[in-house]
Design goal:
The complex is a heterodimer of chains A (257) and B (318). Chain A has 257 residues and is an alpha/beta fold. Chain A has ten helices and ten strands. Chain B has a single domain (5-316), classed as ABC transporter involved in vitamin B12 uptake, BtuC (Orthogonal Bundle). The two termini of chain B are 21 Å apart. Chain B has helices at 7-30, 33-58, 67-82, 88-110, 115-135, 162-185, 187-197, 199-204, 209-235, 245-258, 265-283, 287-301, 305-317; strands at residues 145-146, 237-238. Classes of the chains: A alpha/beta (257), B mainly alpha (318). The complex binds adenosine-5'-triphosphate and magnesium ion.
Chain lengths: 257, 318
């Protein structure tokens, strides 16, 4: 299942905002078929890390590779076209469009150029069918014609994922997909992410430790922009430094339960 | 917004266009040719407003320099005419082409910015065109230029005949509306609207939104250049006054008043704007003191302008 070559590889990544070192010499790899979780306290630099990998932020130094190719200087949209998709911690959708239109736009982004001025896009089966596939994968196909601004928070989080999926990416960068979700919704999201694991390399940022330990093949712990531990879940759970710095009692509870 | 017009809006659009089409019959019977003149000006400016709506209403690009394209279009008729070149087959493509080129060059700079900066820099480019024409003495400078002969179309149509010009402008207006309708619903149009809604997300899913927005800006500029060429032919006199920043402001008002991001809204906005201007200025010389606040109230409180009002009416009826 795990491919030998990492799909995403980050080395020596560094990013500062004024005096704050948000990313401090981060090295990290994600392989196909693998879920690599990044955890850490608020402000640890998790979102900043994803933003640099996706191209929304430019690192001060370091190298980012995707599928063996250096992408450090590529603009966001070109990385997306190579098969690197992201979801946002703060839901980022098109509020004034229908659910299916949101996803169809993501399909369109990967379906050649969009200098097509004449034929209506909303009835284009190429776009609609693939959008519906992506919606079905996250269980949102029943909401296709609802306004994206009007669906529930949990459903918007699912829409986020569907939009990332619609592009048919090989790697997913998921920034707290369960943020603000209830217990049931979180459980559903965990199942969705699990179902994506086989055909994607997934970098998962998550605060919900149950979700992390249920899903992750590898866990990296980030504190103040620096990696303090990285390894399989059992190792991380047992790591003293990690317990002290971040996990606290949460892990021992989990280990017992 | 996708073009799925409720019947009331559709009805208003067809009634409006039919009104334009029948206006010459009306004025012929009542013998008020000046109304025909007002309507022609109205339709020219409506084309300009429709073009501005494409970038402003659908693309979220609030250009405060759109009147520059009217000026470029008009001077593209006037300057060749000044040298005795009257062929419309040269003038019109020149108007459209130079406008498109100007949009391409300035858009490539303006579209690097957003929000207030975009407004200010488009304003600056508009004023640049204004002062350029003011400073060229050869073409009348401040005083402008008289176009003594209108564009000639090799005997195909003679627009020295007012009715012929009238219907040429109307056909252009209908074509502009149809063009915008198709563009907005197309893949290209979806990108433009997506970029207005959430540009970061558009880039994250793989769109180079800058290039699409620039293309849209060029299309709108070219279309407005056509409006300028028609307006120049109609007035027979062109001057930098057509490009003044207040003209650009008026275009924005027309679009917002009628309903930014709706297909026919800008036409309604133009009609209401010009009719109000006409009525109020006949009433008192201080008409602008009334007009200004009315416009500001509509912008602040009339969500979606006249078009928004219509769709609320249509919803209430159901
Ligand atoms: N655009 C920015 N400008 C200045 N400082 C920033 C910016 N973005 C992030 N930071 C700072 O960088 C640090 C890392 O922020 P980041 O959002 O990456 O943390 P995070 O791990 O995602 O936190 P959370 O768990 O709350 O989402 C924080 O101290 C934050 O204040
Ligand atoms: Mg974050």
């Amino acid at each position: 299942m795990h491919n030998a070559e990492p799909l995403i590889s980050v080395s020596g990544l560094r990013k500062t905002f004024g005096g704050i070192v948000a990313t401090d010499g981060v090295d990290l790899e994600v392989r196909g078929g693998e879920i690599h979780a990044v955890i850490g306290p608020n402000g640890a630099g998790k979102t900043t890390l994803i933003a640099q990998i996706s191209g929304a932020l430019q690192p001060d130094s370091g190298v980012i590779r995707f599928a063996g190719r250096e992408i450090t200087d590529l603009p966001t949209y070109e990385r997306a076209r190579l098969g690197l998709a992201r979801s946002f911690q703060i839901t980022s959708i098109f509020h004034d469009m229908s659910v299916v239109d949101n996803v169809a736009l993501a399909v369109q982004a990967q379906d050649g150029h969009s200098y097509r001025f004449w034929r209506p896009a909303r009835t284009d089966p190429v776009l609609v069918d693939r959008a519906m596939d992506a919606l079905a994968r996250v269980g949102l196909d029943g909401r296709r014609d609802d306004n994206a601004g009007k669906i529930s928070h949990g459903e918007r989080r699912q829409l986020e994922i569907a939009m990332a999926l619609a592009a048919g990416p090989s790697a997913l960068l998921l920034d707290e997909p369960t943020a603000g979700m209830g217990r049931e919704e979180t459980a559903r999201m965990v199942e969705i992410i699990r179902s994506l694991k086989d055909d994607h390399a997934i970098l998962l940022i998550e605060h919900d430790m149950d979700a992390v330990f249920a899903l992750a093949d590898r866990i990296t712990v980030l504190v103040y922009g620096r990696i303090i531990a990285s390894g399989p879940p059992q190792t991380i759970r047992a790591d003293d430094a990690v317990r002290k710095a971040y996990l606290g009692d949460e892990v021992s509870d989990h280990a017992e339960g | 917004m996708p073009i799925r017009l409720p019947s009331l809006r559709n009805g208003v659009m067809f009634a409006g266009l039919a009104g334009f089409a029948l206006m010459p019959v009306f004025t012929g019977v009542t013998g008020q040719p000046y109304i025909l003149d007002i309507t022609m000006r109205m339709m020219c400016l409506a084309i300009a407003a429709v073009s501005l709506n494409l970038i402003l209403g659908f693309g979220g690009m609030i250009s405060f320099g759109h009147a520059a394209f009217i000026g470029i279009g008009a001077y593209a008729v006037g300057i060749p005419a000044y040298y005795g070149e009257y062929s419309g087959f040269l003038q019109i493509p020149l108007a459209v082409g130079v406008s498109a080129l100007f949009a391409l060059i300035t858009g490539a700079i303006c579209l690097r910015t957003r929000g207030v900066y975009f407004i200010m820099i488009t304003l600056a480019f508009g004023q640049m065109v204004f002062f350029t024409f003011v400073s060229i003495e050869e073409y009348g400078g401040d005083d402008g230029l008289v176009i003594d002969t209108k564009s000639e179309f090799a005997g195909l149509i003679d627009i020295e005949e007012p009715l012929a010009l009238y219907y040429l402008i109307l056909v252009c207006l209908v074509a502009a509306l149809y063009l915008v309708k198709r563009i907005v619903a197309s893949r290209f149009g979806r990108v433009i609207q997506g970029s207005k809604s959430n540009d970061d997300r558009m880039q994250a899913i793989g769109f180079n939104t800058f290039r699409y927005r620039l293309t849209c800006y060029v299309i709108a500029g070219a279309l407005c250049g056509l409006a300028g060429a028609l307006l120049g032919n109609f007035t027979g006199f062109i001057s930098p006054d057509m490009i003044d920043w207040t003209r650009s402001g008026e275009l924005i008002f027309m679009v917002v008043l009628g309903g930014a991001g709706s297909l026919f809204g800008p036409v309604l906005g133009t009609v209401v704007f010009l009719v109000l201007e006409e009525l109020l200025s006949a009433l008192t010389i201080y008409w602008q003191i009334i007009f200004g606040p009315v416009l500001i109230l509509v912008v602040l409180f009339g969500r979606g302008g006249i078009d928004g009002l219509l769709s609320r009416l249509a919803n209430a009826q159901r």
